[in-house]
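Q: What residues go here?
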């Protein structure tokens, strides 16, 4: 990897609490390694404990009254300054992200740019109206609504979008006057600490944003239990999300969950097959399939099944798989050895349940945790691969005869995050928009990908609570208060 000249210093592997860089109270650290070169350390990071969570929540609680009292436009200025700081260090962040969790550089550059855009979008919310005005029924006097911040909010984030997801949670939280404790994913601490560094450079008042690294089962769980934390926004797996929700709602907290997906792509016989192929490839294999919105099932109409399959296999043949720090590479490694083994086991299970591997299915690098883009066919609808999220570059092809059949099978899972159709027919496109059971619906685009200014979130087992991003974020990060005024 080429070292950058004049690159901003990497943040040290410490927590950011009350405006200071501090080691964990336990004094313990862990080593994060590079999934492409597992013998290479990316850095040492704090193994935070309950005491660190306690200190971070206390700092956020102290900072809340003053932060909440600032004019929106003043808060917006801090977000704008942090965006500029992220942009100044964007290349370093992208390279660090690639090194610590293996996402190809071409994607980590895009994700970093997107994080800065999210901050600027959130800052723009300072200039939108908040609240509504009515007349009281009996008197005609004023009655209006306003929005107030909720208080201290804990954000618990996954490793697979280590800058976009923390930022799309903290930006609306902060602009609307809340203070934040952000718990970074164990597998991606360095990228998240860059966010803290950007806000430190922006001279955010101490305690408004606090950032912790370490194990979810210790520091994450402590935040969920802490009664001073009023709301929790969580993105991650279904099992952890549900346990966080159950614990938090018992304590009367507001909870938002963004969870896994099992996202279908339907290819109709009238589709533009070249575009559909590209969308299937990107949806299934970019980020090595480690996206909640990745394409897991591809339903292809009988008449074009063989042609589409040939095109997809040819695209895989042309695909660039390997070292993610090479900007040409499209598919890099899996985040760590454990996930790598789980995906290889799932591929084995797919085979043993009768599925046939028509591409990939094996390790693609001696050292790095790289799995070749893998395509199955003849997988039963009730097989493991058709129902459970396998978080890697694995997808399956299914034949169908009619749109009725495709819709039923596409909707036949517990998840409801994203769904896509490729067709040139208005009827099929319209029906899909009305009937696909997903929070995100794509007509002639891939299942992954989302704009920053529109709502994002899943239905069924893929989510819980209000959606994120865009104006939808207001619902989670503010309380509505109704005010009756009589002279
Ligand atoms: P994960 O559930 O293992 O961890 C998510 C976060 O929760 C991490 O910060 C982790 O440390 C923390 N955590 C773990 N145990 C905890 C506990 N007991 N209490 C509190 N916090 C705890 O998920 P992951 O492996 O980091 O991420 C991958 C998963 O996230 C996939 O299932 C993917 O589909 C999902 N995801 C969903 C979306 C979405 O928007 N719907 C986006 C990205 C990822």
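A:
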């Amino acid at each position: 990897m080429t070292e950058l000249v004049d690159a901003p210093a990497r943040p040290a592997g410490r927590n950011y609490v009350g405006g200071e860089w501090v080691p964990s109270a336990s004094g313990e650290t862990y080593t994060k390694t590079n999934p492409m070169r597992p013998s290479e350390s990316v850095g040492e990071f704090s193994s935070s404990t309950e005491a660190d969570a306690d200190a971070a929540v206390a700092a956020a609680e102290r900072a809340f009254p003053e932060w909440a009292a600032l004019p929106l436009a003043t808060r917006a200025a801090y977000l704008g300054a942090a965006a500029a700081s992220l942009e100044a260090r964007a290349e370093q962040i992208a390279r660090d992200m690639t090194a610590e969790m293996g996402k190809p550089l071409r994607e980590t550059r895009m994700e970093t740019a997107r994080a800065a855009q999210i901050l600027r979008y959130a800052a723009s919310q300072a200039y939108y109206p908040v609240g509504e005005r009515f007349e009281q029924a009996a008197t005609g006097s004023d009655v209006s609504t306003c929005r107030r911040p909720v208080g201290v909010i804990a954000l618990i984030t996954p490793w697979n979008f280590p800058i976009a997801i923390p930022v799309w949670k903290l930006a609306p939280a902060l602009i609307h006057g809340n203070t934040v404790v952000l718990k970074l994913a164990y597998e991606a601490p360095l990228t998240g600490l860059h966010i803290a560094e950007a806000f430190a450079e922006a001279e955010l008042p101490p305690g408004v944003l606090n950032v912790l690294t370490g194990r979810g089962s210790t520091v994450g769980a402590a935040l969920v239990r802490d009664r001073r934390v009023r709301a929790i926004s969580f993105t991650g797996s279904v099992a952890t999300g549900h346990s966080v929700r159950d614990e938090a709602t018992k304590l009367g907290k507001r909870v938002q969950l963004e969870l896994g997906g099992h996202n279908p792509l339907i290819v109709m016989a009238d589709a533009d097959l070249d575009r559909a192929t590209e969308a299937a490839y990107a949806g299934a294999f970019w980020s090595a399939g480690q996206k909640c919105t990745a394409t897991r099932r591809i339903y292809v109409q009988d008449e074009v099944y063989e042609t589409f399959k040939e095109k997809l296999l040819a695209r895989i043949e042309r695909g660039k798989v390997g070292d993610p720090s090479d900007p040409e590479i499209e598919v890099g490694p899996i985040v760590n050895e454990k996930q790598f083994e789980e995906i290889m086991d799932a591929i084995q299970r797919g085979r043993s349940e009768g599925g046939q591997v028509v591409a990939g299915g094996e390790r693609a690098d001696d050292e790095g945790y790289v799995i070749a883009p893998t395509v199955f066919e003849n997988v039963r609808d009730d097989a493991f691969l058709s129902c459970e999220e396998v978080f890697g570059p694995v997808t399956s092809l299914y034949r169908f005869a009619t749109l009725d059949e495709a819709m039923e099978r596409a909707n036949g899972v517990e998840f409801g995050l994203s769904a896509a159709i490729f067709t040139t027919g208005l009827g099929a496109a319209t029906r899909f928009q009305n009937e696909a059971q997903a929070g995100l619906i794509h007509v002639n685009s891939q299942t992954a990908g989302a704009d920053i200014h529109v709502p994002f979130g899943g239905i069924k087992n893929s989510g819980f609570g209000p959606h994120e991003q865009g104006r939808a974020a207001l619902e989670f990060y503010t309380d509505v208060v109704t005010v009756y005024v009589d002279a």
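A: Context that may help when evaluating the design: The longest helix spans residues 50-69. Residues 263-451 form a domain with the Aldehyde Dehydrogenase; Chain A, domain 2 fold (CATH 3.40.309.10).
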